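Students often ask why we bother predicting the structure of a whole assembly rather than each chain alone. The short answer is interfaces. A chain on its own may look different once its partners are present, and contacts between molecules only exist in the joint model. In this exercise we take two input lines together and write out one structure for the complete complex. Read the inputs first and try to guess which parts will touch.
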Amino acid sequence: MSGATGVYICRGCSIGDSLDVDALAAVAAVEDGVAVTRTSAAFCLEDAQSIADDAAAKVDSVVVAACSQRVNRGVFSFGTTPVRRVNLREQVAWSHTPRVDATQELATDLLRMGIAAARLTNPAVPYTKDHLRSVLVVGAGPAGLGAALAAGEAGYQVTVVDRAPQAGGFLRHLHRGYPATGEALSELPPFDPETLVQTVADHANVTLLTATSVLEVSGQPGRFRATLDQSGERRQVEVGAVVFATGFQPTPDQLFSRYGLGELQDVITSVGMEELARRGEIVRPSTGAPAQRVVILACDGPADSANRAYLGNVTSMVALKQAMYVHERQPRATVHIVYQDMQTPGLDELYYRHVQGQRRIFLVRGEAGGIRLQEDGSLRVAVTGSVLARELELEADLVVLQVGMIPTSDPQSGAPASLHLNYLQGESLPPHRAGFLDSNFLCFPFETRRTGIYAAGCVHRAQDVTASARDGAAAALKAVQVVEKSAQGAAVHPRVGDLGYPQFFMQKCTACGRCTQECPFGALELDAQRHPVIEPNRCRRCGICMGACPVQVISFPDYSVEMLSAMQKSVELPEDDDKPRVLVLACENDAYPALDMVGINHLQYPADFRVVPVRCLGSVNSVVVADAVQRGYDGVVLLGCRAGDNYQCHFIQGSELLGVRMDNVRETLGRLALETDRVRVIETSIADARALPGELAAFASNLAAMGPNPMKGF
Amino acid sequence: MSQSSLVPLPLRPDLDFIGRLVELAGDSFTKCYQCGTCSVVCPFSFQGTGLPRREMALAQWGLKEELLDSPNLWVCTTCGNCARVCPREVDIPGTIRAARELFLLERDPSRELATAFENTSRHGNPLGQSARKRADWIAGAGVEVPIMARVQRPVEVLFFTECYWSYHPRGMEAAQALARIMAALGVDWAVLGTEERCVADSQRLAGESGIFEEAAAANIATLGNYQFGRLVTPDPHAYNAFRNLYPRMGGTYQVQHYTQFLAERLADLALAPIPSRRVTFHDPCYLGRHNGEYEAPRRLLEAIPGLEMIEMGHCRANGYCCGGGGGEIWNSGFTKEHVDERLSEVRVREAIASGADVLAVCCPFEVSLFEDAVKSTGHQGQLAVRDIVELMDESLRAARN
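Now the answer. The structure tokens for the assembled complex follow.
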């Protein structure tokens, strides 16, 4: 626990015009443990050094009452001295009426809350034991090989394994690629799996093991232990991080029975087309003669059983490329591509136009129906739903069906590829959408829900060879990052650099195991007595375990239930009817920035709200809310991110877990005979900031209708 | 359609046909991705025949007979709203025009269209009037209208009257109004008189590029005999040809539509109030969308005291078509067989709904088309159709009185 606290109140950015800063300084000076109180016209411009000097000599923790904690982080950072920010700018001066009692009271409460929090902030002791500079890459296709090369080039020792006897993955099934951005449109770039595999195998830092599968992975970032099986022989490797790149499987042939696949000889899949092209002429399987009329079905309609989410940009381009296979070999052959949804994002559009420009390649937007075999051995393909509003018919010697790509990580694929994790929460990597491994495509790509294990290639998202190789390299850099952070004992995304990790006060633990179940990242294991044990480098520091614990034994050095309680208790609760007080527990990832955005736009909301930033709504223990209501707060707002399928939570399920915990809170409210509407969850995001003042004002007026909390003053 | 639409249509591309279309119209139609955005903004969208996305698909797939059989091919006015919105920038009007040209190599056009073509070839105007009467309108102008062949010196402005202002009774009135305005401005100008021949841009759009080229050669030769500062015409179709096609054939002029010419001289005109009326303006497709001039006509209308300007929903770049472009002015019987409503009637209803008393126009086809539509939709007395030049003339006369 810290001893002396220094409090630094800024007048800049109109704080001084809005508030009586001297009065605030006088309040701070008499708070417990405050040794120094200073004010400045603008700490960031001139006086940051005075804080640094104090931090070096006089004080153990620092409270900066100025701008939002989201800005000027570097300016207000003083070595290892804990810093607590009190937001007098965005959330007071810029969003409330200047120079009135209500605004001054708001600032006073926030200042006291900050000082209380600083008192309960302890320096972190980082966990720095495990930091092996090595990577295990699972899967030696384009993505895995790309990852191996990138990590090897970064100076890391790489073990890349593939269960197949030959490395190269699906690349070995492909004839050619399609032009990438900037390449000549008229040439289909060749693949050279041999050279690629050789380059990786020859790399001084890379060990390539084929015919090798993964039996088990245990441990944590910095030191994972993997048990491998190489042709029946067991091997152990220890690595700092893992890249998972096991690729995709084509959709099974049964899904194409409506097109006669397997029954009609001249109906083949796009995989079969690659095979044909590799051998030379595009011939009819039934006769061996070159096909003169080729129909390519994109199989991309909503009703098509082979259609799968998020892969159109690959299969569309493959359909266009395969039309060119025919065109290059048999210039007099005609090709019709029947499609419903051509997806050629970005500069791929140029290739789409290029193929359309070929005089004997035709694109027909419509839905392919059945395929009939004619007496002369040719095929007839029916097409409906075209712009001609009548059924069309295509004559074909060869029909090519574009197959979908099923990520090998998809649990619905039967036997998903697995690392067989020796984790309490189970051996598989939890999939996100459509079987892909990712926790959020936009905000933190490559991150699976197991820290230190990164998805690359077609388990990450559907992508082509070029993109997979690039994806592998990017995932490898994430793997390097997590090891380097482990060396510092620091967290990775989103609390990059955070050194503290959860501590358990074991004497009071009831071994209920809830924390081990709710951790979104599987960071907690159980010991022999069924008590939780943390693997610190798996932890993302969200605090969801802290919110889960029914006996509140989990805390961080600088974040705890005790701290949140002390903050809410340092707010004065006046008994006047016209001064309601609302505690706002605001998620620092999206909700707190949204409140800042309100201030930046100089929008106003009532001065009744006392905002406590929390790491995630999932870290809010229901005790904090229950205590606040019991103490006499008129209302509590839990301001967080969107839950559900399109969740925005940086920790996957924090918002969702909160929903469950709210039941406890409602129970407390019921017991106290209080209205359940006094506690509300508001989902927001930085983009919704403009609507936020209205929502807060509506909540306040709802409370006014209910009258003050009768528990006030007890 | 010749075949029953219940029988599946075989897609057997006629590669030669595609090649000839590409020669005439470029290959932009091969890049169509069948989204149908064009058919949403087509003035004939109410008919639900899929114009022009159907025709673009037929062209793209090389289905020659189906394309040549399609009545849509001869309903289209080439107004160009489709091309404005096409995400693939397909030259839809150009492709329709090319398909018409290929049609005419093998098949006969409608009787009325054939007559217009024949009249243009024989008399130099599609109305079948005598070439000798081309300058007869001058007599009723009330001011002197110099004839180029007689003035024997360079003039500032050569006014290319075109056929409808030369022969059509309502067009002649407009031409006479313009002559009075030119006199009031003291412009040094002249007309070609009987030496003038139809520019025939609409005949070109109807597929008859032969007639157009012949007429262009004759006009370029005639114009080459004289010296003039600029060429001014009341016909947006002629304006289009002078601006975009004549230069490729050796005739480069400084050309203006009459609204552009007058808009530059508004300060020199003493316009007096006319009885107050609410006026709305119909953008001609070949002045607006095809050549980008939306402001000049509006500036003229706004300068006339007494007029209150109202815009219709379809205006400027999204302006509706009068139904007369692309040769359709001579093909109304055919179109009537295939389309339930005339575009001029739809447009008149829109003008009525806007609350206007006057529908102002500045294309010679439009006065008669819209006046007929006012009658056929039962709005006689509710909406006057006036060329902008007539409104200006009225305002100038009010100033003199």
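Check your guess against this: Residues 503-545 of chain A form a domain with the Alpha-Beta Plaits fold (CATH 3.30.70.20).
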